[in-house]
Structure formats: structure tokens, C-alpha cells
Specification:
homodimer; 323 residues; alpha/beta; 6-stranded parallel beta sheet; 6-stranded mixed beta sheet; DNA-binding
DNA sequence: GAATGCTACTAGAACGTTCTAGTTATTATT
DNA sequence: AATAATAACTAGAACGTTCTAGTAGCATTC
């Protein structure tokens, strides 16, 4: 079980170590015949190039670090799919790190990526403070996805506009008591809040806001409080929270889409299922991932701009919880 | 932005490179005072140990590779939480790789983990063939989670028993036309199928089986076919498929839990929501992750057994789709 | 007061790659 | 026929750590 190294392959194939390296990296400088020979010997010996050694020795290995906040929220799976759709075509490598409910965990995940010497970091759903994020941006190239941040490259959806879309849809359907279930811990909180407030104000209505936290169960509890205030429609800061609202409605014997209308945010595959049929704002998560990956690839080039931000325009997807 | 190395810190702190290494690894051999001094200098210079170099030089770095098949399926998030619950306490490091819908992708993900020189691999939801998996097991220590495999360490739920639980529950409620929506591509397919068949046979009933694939949308289409055969209850191979079944029922104007009963498998947080209230078999995903992590830690020790397998006993969680 | 053990530290050789600067052949150009 | 250009290959120095074997100093033991 002793590890087979590049030297073993070189010796067995009767060539230099350098040539084996060239062959395995697939760069020019080796004849097709010898390359084939080297691969055969390598395969026989069970040679697998040591990625750590490669990353140490190589300056230009195009390693991209990806951070995902929460595996339980499908948004991040969508973003990751988008990232991979772009990256899989090229010759870059991906190092993954995921966050957790614990507060400081996203910082330590970024630390691990930096320690792995990634060239760029794509971070989706960071919860750290703006100032902490700015510090990281000083140390490494970082692209924040879903979370807007001053001084840092970001790929986001226009949360303000998305919130307005949601509320205006409800207003156009004649609602006058529109509540907002907000999560201050989540990306785009301030923008969605502003969008909600402006839309409500412009229609001459009164805002009705309830704060909640990340967990769906908590959203359900807070939704109960909100329902007690008798709104006719509820806009939830994301689909997971919207699910909490629907749960609360059902437990209260109310029918979503009839007694109270509900709009979510994220348009996850969950909202698309006929059971839920959740009207939701589509932030184009997959496209966010793609854009972030493209920027990441740009940043690998020496000519890269320091900062580059993209904002996509969300759309409203009408389903039966708010027809 | 030039990288700060251990040598820079050593020089600036007036100590040897070795001592800086000792301090940062937190091992014995440095006085508290100098360690503090080293950290201060390191912090001032912005030193971050290069993980690649460390992994290359070190023999005993306790690196554990984790493979997750599909970020869209919450089971794997649960498993990962379990893994982390155990691993976060120790001093091991985790390298993550995730699969995708593409067929050969899980093999290349394992290759990457092996190339990263991980000491053990915890692989959740592998879809490769038994023989291919056996080959990997020859090359590296590997623990298969959710997927049982001969000759390979595995942590699984008793799928046979789980399927029987589901079917027997339906039988006890008086059902006589119980269908099974099966996915041959998924873990535990054969066992769940056997469990279903045996339970049905023992009750003197006729099996009614429809195959489907991984995607939920496909499950919905296949569920439609199944419904045409007029079963009174449907057992789905997992929660995602059960969701497809429920979608199909609703589209057909039928009420799950009333017109047709539905049982899923995985007990994901989704099934727990009041909207769905899906009766499901709980394979203890979180515990599976924990057990796998414990075995992985055992395997790091030189005295480790070659193969170690654990099987947990699933339970039935009754909710309103099959009361 | 010599031997022993312990703590705090260091020098220098690994670890397995990549990369720069060559060296040979071989082919093309004048 | 001489020169230039190209292709195929190599030697050896990085890369930034860890680890083994050791030294110096000091307290403890007999």
C-alpha cells in the first residue's frame, strides 16, 4: 500500500520525472507515444498524482474555493449547480467548504479555504459582518453571492426590486393588510425590507413586520404571531420561511391561497411542487452561480479588475398560494 | 500581497522555523511565553499556514474525505451534520466532494479525494457499481453510507426492515392494493424491494411495482402511471419520490391520506412539515453520519480493523398521509 | 558531583510535485 | 551545406511545511 510517486513511474517508464509530470498535466512537450507509455506504466503501478504536492509546487493551478452557507437550504444547491456548470468546462479545481448554524463558523470555513491556497473564493450566503467580510477581501480575492457587500465583488439578485414585485403583486390583487416575515440574519434583509416598506407606503398602506430567525420551526412560531394580527397576505423573506407560514396557517385551520395569500422568495424546487404551489420571487440562483464562476475565472487572470459586481433582476412566479 | 511563510515568521520572531511549526500545531515543545510571541508576530505579518505544504510534509494529519451524492436531497445534509457533529470535536480535517446527476461523476469525485491524500473516505450515496466500489476499497479506506456494499465498510439503515415497516403499517390499516414506486438507481433499492415483496406476499397480496428514476419530476410522471392502476396506498422509495406521488395525486384531484395513502422513506425535514405531513420511514440519517465518522476516526489508528459495518434500525413515523 | 531526566529549542533532510533553463535530435529554410 | 527552428526530453532547484535527531541548559536524583 506504499504510495506510488511520480519518481516510481519515471523510473519504471525509463523517462525523467519531468516528462511524467508533463504527460499527466496534459501540456505540450511529450510525444503521443511516450505519453501513452507513461500512462500505461502509471496505471499498472496505481499512480495517482499527489494534489497537495502539485498545489504546493505550482503557481498557476487555478484553484477556486467555494463556500456554501447551509446544505439544508436548496438555494445553495442551485447556486452550486450554476458554479459547476461553468467551472466543469475549464481546467480549474474546486475546493469546497460549508457553513453551519454556528455563528463564527463561516469565518473558519473561509480560513480553511485560504489555508488551502485557493486563488479565489466564491462565498454564497455569508453571514459575517460587513467589516469582517471587508477584512477577508483584503487578504484574498472573494466574490460574495446572494449577500451584497460594499467594497467586495458580489453577485446578487436585486432584492429591493424582488420585494417590491412581491408586494405589488399582492396589492394588485386587492390586498390591503400585507405583512412581512423578515429575517435579519439572512442575505438581502435590508433591501427586501426597504422594498416591502416602499411598496406598502406607495400604496398608502400600513407596514406590518414580524422578525424571525433562520430555522423553519422558528419561522412557524413567528408566523403564528403574525397571523394573530390578521393580515390578508404574508410576504416571507424566503421559501423556507414561507413554508413555516404555510405550516402555521394549516395548523390554524386556514387555507393558504384562499384565507391568506403567501409569497416566498427563492423559487426553490420545493415551491414548484404542486402540493405547495408557492408563489415566489425567483432570484435566478442558478444564474447567480454561473455569474460568480465567470467572475472567478476572470479574477484568475493577471489582468483582472480588482472588483466586479453583477446584479440580476428577479422575477415573480405566480402559483396558487397567491394567485 | 506576497505570501507570508513560516520562515518569515521565524525570522521576525527570532526563532527557528521548527519552533513556529510547533507553536502553530499546538503540540508540546514550546514555552507559553514564546508561543504567544510567535503568534503575535505571525498575526502582524498575516501568516496563514499553507495547508498543502502541511499535508505534503505530514504523515499524520488525519484528513477525512467526505463525498455527498446530491445537495438537492436533504438526506445528505442530515448525514453531513452527523459526520460533523463527531468530527468537529477532534483534530481531524475534512475535505469535501459532491456528486451530481452525471453518471461517472462520483468516481471522479472519489479520485479527487484520493489525490488529496485523504486518510479515509466517507462516501454517502454512491451510485457506482459494486465492482467499481470494490476497486476503490482496494486503493483506499472507504466507508459507504446509506449504500450497502459487500467487502466494504458501510453504515446503513436496515432497508429491508424499513420497507416491511412501511408496508405492514399500510396492511394493518386495511389496505390490500399497496403499490411500490421503486428507484433502481438509488441506495437500498434491492433491500427495500425485497422488504416490500415479502411483506405483501406474507399478507397474501399482489405486488404492484412501478420503477422510476432519481428526479422528482420523473417520479411524478411515473406516479401517474401507478395511480392509473388504482392502488389504495403507495409506498415510495424515498421522500423526494413520495413528494412526486403527492404532486401526482393533487394534480389528479385526489387527496393524499384520504383517497390514497402515501408512505415515504428518509424522514427528511420536508416530510415533517404540517403541509406535507408525510408518513415516512426514518433511517436515522444523522446517526448514520455520526457512526460513519466514528468508524472513520477508528480507521485512522494503526490498530484499525480492515472492515467495520454498522446497520441501524429504522423506525416508522406516522403522519397524516398514512395515518 | 556525576549521572539522569526534562524542557526549550534548532539544523537539515524529507515530502512529491512543478518549473526554468537547458541539451539533444530532427526537420525546415536559405 | 550551413543555419535556424522546432520537438522531445532532462537536471536540478524551488514550493512551505513536518519530522528526526540532536544540543544546551537546568533541575533532580543517588
Amino acid at each position: 500500500m506504499g504510495k506510488v510517486t511520480i519518481n516510481d513511474v519515471a523510473k519504471a517508464a525509463g523517462v525523467s520525472r519531468s516528462l511524467v509530470s508533463i504527460a499527466y498535466r496534459g501540456v505540450q512537450g511529450v510525444s503521443e507515444a511516450t505519453a501513452e507509455h507513461i500512462f500505461q506504466v502509471g496505471k499498472k503501478l496505481g499512480y495517482v498524482p499527489n494534489l497537495n504536492a502539485a498545489r504546493l509546487a505550482s503557481k498557476k493551478l487555478n484553484t477556486i474555493g467555494v463556500f456554501l452557507q447551509d446544505l439544508h437550504n436548496e438555494v445553495f444547491a442551485d447556486v452550486f449547480d450554476g458554479i459547476r456548470a461553468v467551472l466543469d468546462k475549464g481546467d480549474s479545481q474546486v475546493v469546497l467548504a460549508v457553513g453551519s448554524a454556528e455563528p463564527g463558523h463561516d469565518a473558519s470555513a473561509l480560513d480553511t479555504l485560504i489555508a488551502s491556497q485557493v486563488d479565489v473564493i466564491i462565498a454564497a450566503g455569508l453571514t459575517m459582518s460587513d467589516s469582517q467580510l471587508a477584512k477577508y477581501a483584503n487578504r484574498t480575492k472573494i466574490i460574495s453571492v446572494t449577500r451584497k457587500a460594499p467594497q467586495v465583488s458580489s453577485v446578487t439578485s436585486d432584492d429591493y426590486h424582488g420585494a417590491k414585485l412581491a408586494v405589488n403583486h399582492l396589492i394588485s390583487r386587492g390586498h390591503s393588510k400585507i405583512a412581512f416575515l423578515a429575517n435579519p440574519q439572512t442575505d438581502g434583509y435590508t433591501d427586501r425590507l426597504r422594498g416591502y416598506q416602499d411598496a406598502v407606503k406607495q400604496a398608502g398602506l400600513k407596514p406590518m413586520i414580524q422578525q424571525t430567525t433562520y430555522a423553519r420551526v422558528q419561522a412557524e412560531l413567528d408566523a403564528v404571531k403574525l397571523i394573530a394580527k390578521k393580515p390578508t397576505a404574508i410576504f416571507a423573506h424566503n421559501d423556507m420561511a414561507a413554508l413555516g407560514v404555510i405550516d402555521a396557517l394549516i395548523s390554524a385551520g386556514l387555507k393558504p391561497g384562499q384565507d391568506i395569500h403567501v409569497v416566498g422568495f427563492d423559487n426553490t424546487s420545493l415551491s414548484q411542487t404542486p402540493v405547495l404551489a408557492l408563489t415566489s420571487i425567483d432570484p435566478k440562483s442558478h444564474a447567480l452561480g454561473e455569474e460568480a464562476a465567470k467572475i472567478a475565472l476572470n479574477m484568475l487572470k493577471p489582468s483582472a479588475k480588482k472588483q466586479e459586481s453583477v446584479q440580476l433582476t428577479p422575477t415573480l412566479v405566480i402559483r396558487s398560494t397567491a394567485p
